[in-house]
Amino acid sequence: MADDRELWERICRGDTGAFDGFYQENVSPLNGFLRQLLGNTQAAEDVAQEAFLHLWRKPNGFHPENGSLRAYLFGIARKRAAEWWRQQRSTADEQEPRKTECETESSSLIEEAFSKLGAEQRSLLWLKLVEGQSYVELAAILEIPVGPVKWRLFAAREEWRRIWHGASAGKRVAT
Amino acid sequence: MNCEKAAEFVSVLCDGERIPREVAEHLGACEECKARLNEYLQMSAQLKRMAIIAAPRRVRDVSWGPQETTKPSWWQMCRESMRRPRFAFALLLVAILSLGAGIVIVRANNSERWFQFEVRTREGVTALTGFMSAEPKEPVEPGPVITHEPEGTLAFIVRVLAGTGGSEKLGVRATWIPQNVDQSGIKEKVLGTPERDFWVIPGQRLSVPVEDYGQIEITGQLLDKLPDDQNPSEMRLYPKEGQYRLISPQVLLVDGHVLSKGGGNGLNMLTKDCFFAYYAPHNGWYIFAFNAFPGATEGKINANQVEFTLDGRSYTLVAAAPIADASVTKIWVRHHAGNRLVDDEPVSPDLDSRSHMMFGDLKYMLEHITTE
Predict the structure, then answer these.
(1) ipTM
(2) CB < 8 Å from B in window 122-141 of A
């Protein structure tokens, strides 16, 4: 956390080198997170870019004592992704573009089941299982209390498992 | 232990956290739970594989451009045109309640939840206690709290910005002015400090770093309703020992005639080191304190009334409820001509024509009182 504070202070001073380093380190994981959230590679890259720009332009929104800079970045990205979805819904009723890409790229029922989870549950599971965020960081990113994080993870896993088993049963019946 | 109870811990175990011994024993013996664990691990591994496959192909080259400088918020701008006690002080209330007892009653009737909070200095001294709506539709705008310490002055503003899911989002401005630095314009200094947002979980301690000072600590809890001694609709008859208050409505009489009435929203939980002042339009300020102070005349507290004599005339300030506990009978009063009581008080012609009140730390007020 001390490193984070130092990095943040450098960013606050307008140190582009420091921010570039942070960008290079985090842009791929953030894009990955956003891709599964948005189901659209281009949109994911755009939203990631917006999140980085937001952090660069307004670094004072981050408070080192509240979590890591990385968690803060993911929190910004998550909100931007939610905005992107709202805009999509206002322009195309009921479309679900995330399914298109995920389904074509999906090679397993588990993946397919994951893509059918709600955005909040997918975010939570991705951040925990892929990004390895702690409960505290998850709470900060998702803007929820720490206490319910464990329960929400459990609920997300159960839902994922339920959909997976449902899909498996469907396949068996179909074949 | 049964599978239903153990299931959540299976998830916790997958997160790399410790689980209770009895759950571990159950997992070791239960096939259903073992199956759940295996499936969770399988799901986790699959998601990680997915992440690797989905990793972006390239990283864009970007230019970051200039950073934005911090601008005053709308709230800060608005404050400049408002007249409020600029120096609510240590151990004092409830800047919020003082803003509108009427509002409090309405909200209490609507079963609104409250965030009862306490702010402590680095020495662990209580600097502010108060209540704010836990889920405000619009964040309230409390005045700065200014506390003097031997090495300097700490000024801060704490308010609830939003509440959701049992957490409170607080907005905090805080600044430290060391003793060897010009102590004027403290209000401007704290208002010029960027407001920082913090999520706090009621019951937990929030440490807020203040540059060159250390940390202030904020703790709080959620209440389904205001405590009886804070809720004007359920208030106890006499304040607790050591606490003082001035509940609306107030009337100031001189020689039996009404000089001024109304005047604010009531002050609660004042302490012995505080003053409160009542402004009568075209007549100036009447400053009241529970300790003697320069130029003040001794008056008498009689339940909900303060009786005093100035320039041979007999005054009575009447409040809606007893001002102090029954053992307190002395109070000191001084008149201060003019519209402005303290030097950092903003001009507001609108308020100059209406009765209103101010409160805060007596010592601080006397240091900043305007010249009559």
Answers:
(1) 0.76
(2) 125-126, 128-130, 135, 139-140
Mean pLDDT of the region B327-352? 76
Full domain range(s) for residue A108? 2-174
Instruction: Give the chain A residue whose CA is nearest to the CA of B67.
Output: A57
Alpha carbon B156 to its chain centroid, in Å, reads: 9
Q: Is B15 helix (H, G, I), strand (E, B) or coil?
A: coil
What would the two tokens of residue A8 be? 């943040």
Could you tell me the residue range of the domain that residue B269 belongs to? 237-368
Q: Could you give the CA distance from residue A142 to residue A121 in angstroms, rounded to a whole number? A: 11
- CB of B114 within 8 A of CB of B121? no
Q: How far is B201 from chain A (nearest CA, A)?
A: 7
> Total structural domains in chain A?
1
Q: Give the lowest-confidence range in A12-21, B58-67, B95-104, B227-236.
A: B95-104
The mean predicted confidence, pLDDT, of chain B is: 74
Closest residue in A to B166 (Cα) is A145
> DSSP string of chain A?
-HHHHHHHHHHHTT-HHHHHHHHHHHHHHHHHHHHHHHS-HHHHHHHHHHHHHHHHH-GGG--GGGS-HHHHHHHHHHHHHHHHHHHHHHHSTT--HHHHHHHHH--SHHHHHHHTS-HHHHHHHIIIIIS---HHHHHHHHTS-SHHHHHHHHHHHHHHHHHHHHHHHHHHHH-
Does A118 lie at the interface with B, CB-CB under 8 angstroms? no
Q: How confident is the model at residue B85 (pLDDT cuts 50, 70, 90)?
A: very low
Whether the link from the prior residue into B249 is cis, omega within 30° of 0, is yes
Say which residue the tokens 């890409």 belong to. Answer: A101
Side chain identity at residue A136, one-letter code = V
Torsion of CA A103, A105, A108, A109, to 10 degrees: -10
Same-domain status, B83 and B167: yes
pLDDT at B57: 53
Nearest alpha-carbon partner for A1 in A75, A72, A78: A72
Question: Taking residues B226-254, what's their average pLDDT?
Answer: 71
Helix (H, G, I), strand (E, B) or coil at B339: coil
Q: Is there a domain that residue B280 lies in?
A: yes
State whether residue A21 sits within 8 Å of chain B by CB: no
Domain count, chain B: 3
Q: B327 in a domain, yes or no?
A: yes
> Following DSSP, what letter does each residue of B177-214 receive, concatenated?
EETTS--TTHHHHHHTSPPEEEEE-TTS-EEEEETTTE
Asked whether B355 and B270 are in contact (CB, 8 A), the reply is no
- Asked if residue B291 lies in contact with residue B366, where contact means CB atoms within 8 angstroms, the answer is no
